[in-house]
Input
Amino acid sequence: MIVAIAIVLAVVLGSSGSGNTGPSSGDTPTIKLVSGTPAVGNSKSPSAVQGAATAAALFQGIPQSHFILGKPNAPVELTEFIDLQCPVCQAFETTVLPTIVQKYVRTGKLRIKMETWSILDRPGTGVNDSDRGQKATVAAAGQNKAFDFAELLYYNQGTEDSNWLNDGIVSATAASVDGLKPAQLVSDANSAGTKQLIQQIDSLANTLAGKNTTGGFNSTGFIGTPGLFLTKGSGAPVFYGTGLPTVSSLESAIDALLK
Output
């Protein structure tokens, strides 16, 4: 059964100095806050990033607790393994997920568990977009804003391997999420607690993907992002698929478990 990582988030997220920087196009592993970033995010601010109002409306009024969206006692759970740099994840989050949220999460039939999995960064290239997106989204979960933050990153996603997920986009996105504190997000993103949680998420993903001792993968079907699992009640998660599903196919799978 998928381990519930999210419940330990509030306990283990530590604090480390974030520092301030001017506008940055850098892509180092350490995330910094751009100077002048507001103390608290506001989706209605004139400086809010593209899609801020849409994301705020999508999730408004729906319970969020760390990595969980929706009522904790919802009869079905959808687990999504996502990479913030993944263009297929972007398509899923912006074209499929909104319908699922409105039809099933908002009505209490489904909860969603987010697992941020960094798999697209290539060692030696100097690009850390997947890692930075993972760290920042895990930190947003500490303020119960992971889904809002991730959705906005996807609305503003740049070209893969382009260093698009820099300090500027992290700071601007955080400042565009209602109630999110950008300075806290940056501090938490660089903390030992976030590193620990990421190690747990990566370990879980590798286990479910069947990673073997030689670094390869056994045939489990779960080979990338978005990787989706469905769970009914307290049962074991069932692998749904990797890649972009159609709305109708995912709805059929959820409806089958709701019967």
About this structure: The first helix runs from residue 9 to 12. The domain at 42-258 is CATH 3.40.30.10 (Glutaredoxin). Confidence is low (pLDDT under 50) at residues 1-25.
